[in-house]
Amino acid sequence: MDCLIDHIVIDVRDRMTEGAEAYRRLGFQLTPMGKHSLGSANHLAILGRDYLELLGTDVPGGTLRPDIAPFPVGLNGLVFRGYEAEALAAGQQARGVPVQPATAFHRPADLPDGTQQDAKFKTVRLDRSAAFDGRLYWCEHLTPEHVWRPEWQAHPNGALGVARILLSVRDPERQAALFRRMFGAEAVTVTSDCRAMLRAGDAVVEAAPHATVAAELGAAAADPAGRGDRMVLLGLRVRSLEETGSALRINGVPATGGQGLLRIPASEAMNATIDFMA
Fold first, then answer.
1. CATH 3.10.180.10 at 5-151, yes or no
2. Rounded distance between C-alpha atoms, residue 14 and residue 156, angstroms
3. Which CATH number fits domain 159-277: 1.25.40.10, 1.10.10.10, 3.10.180.10, 3.55.40.20?
4. pLDDT for 161-209, tens place per residue?
């Protein structure tokens, strides 16, 4: 089946205002806060065909949705594009993938033209024990016109789309085996240095050993906060690194340069390491 990134979730728990301020400093235009029928709140940074979601509650000290309550602040949701959610769930179950039944929900969306419409979704989630210490699922958009609005897709940092998701794992082959069941054997490759690579359209999902990830990220790494296998880095394609660097300097955000990228330490991005990539 097709493998495309739909969105990436950064949990902010009850620090929604802080999270929104942090990502605006990083140069993202955020949508107005939305409130799900499931009881959570979010802001989105809409990109070309995917997006980032800041997810939590808008009430400081408030109760979190049960499925996100166990997780710390930081990268937590790897979400693939879904279609025909009920058939997708049945197909994945037939492949031996432990998925839950499709769930339908919605949130009112305040649109740029001043109107309000319901954005409607269906999700198919994997059991928590099946993958890394986070959430892995598909999202079917029943009203994509209320999400991908041109007015929301322009960002001062020039972000265009998701390019790389890095997982830090004990056993990359275990993650590779799950991805093969989900998307087929041809979707996954394993490199000579034991990285499992899942091609997802223009993006790649990479599962690498803990030691390899620690060596790559160094002081820019997120606090694992008690997690084992976990999401650690989000890479985003940008129009130009010069444009991105200018936006970061204006807002006083520290970044380190590498070959073809600017890296934001997790301390500046709600416990998520961010790479802006040429």
1. yes
2. 26
3. 3.10.180.10
4. 999 999 999 999 999 999 999 999 999 999 999 999 999 999 999 999 9
